[in-house]
Amino acid sequence: MLNKTMPEKLLYSAYKLFFSTLTSNSRLKIINLLRKGHMNVSEIQDKLKLEQSIISHDLQRLRRCGFVIVEKKGKYRHYSLNEKTIKPLMSIIDKHMKEYCGKIVKRER
Predict the structure, then answer these.
(1) Which value, in Å, is the radius of gyration of the alpha carbons in the chain?
(2) Is 86 exposed, middle or buried (0-12, 13-18, 19+ CB in 10 A)?
């Protein structure tokens, strides 16, 4: 169902932005890591073994698209998943993948 308050062209651009945010391996890794709790850039870098610039760039995209929330604590910025939308959405995606995509991936191996 299309959103009637947004012109169709803008709506599909928003869809593209949303779903393309999920196509990056590093952003997906950050999302899944933040499902366990909030972290700062250094903690994320330590866990994922990625360059700080990649993590910062990905966090900026995730923040701008509303996937993560940032909270400044002292000299650090702590990132966490958007509890209202992204955390529940990731649970739905997990269920869907387990039922459908997981079976396909197993067959392809």
Answers:
(1) 16
(2) buried
Three-state DSSP class for residue 95: helix
Distance CA(61)–CA(63), nearest Å, equals 5
CB 42 within 8 A of CB 9: no
CB within 8 A of 33, min separation 6: which ones?
A: 39, 44, 47, 48
Q: Which helix (H) or strand (E) holds 55?
A: helix 52-64
Number of continuous H segments (helices) and E segments (strands) in the chain: 6, 2
pLDDT per residue over 52-72, tens digit each?
999 999 999 999 999 999 999
Residue-wise pLDDT tens digits, 9-34? 999 999 999 999 999 999 999 999 99
Tokens of 76: 């650090």
Q: How far apart are CA 79 and CA 91, in angstroms?
A: 19
Residue type, 24: S
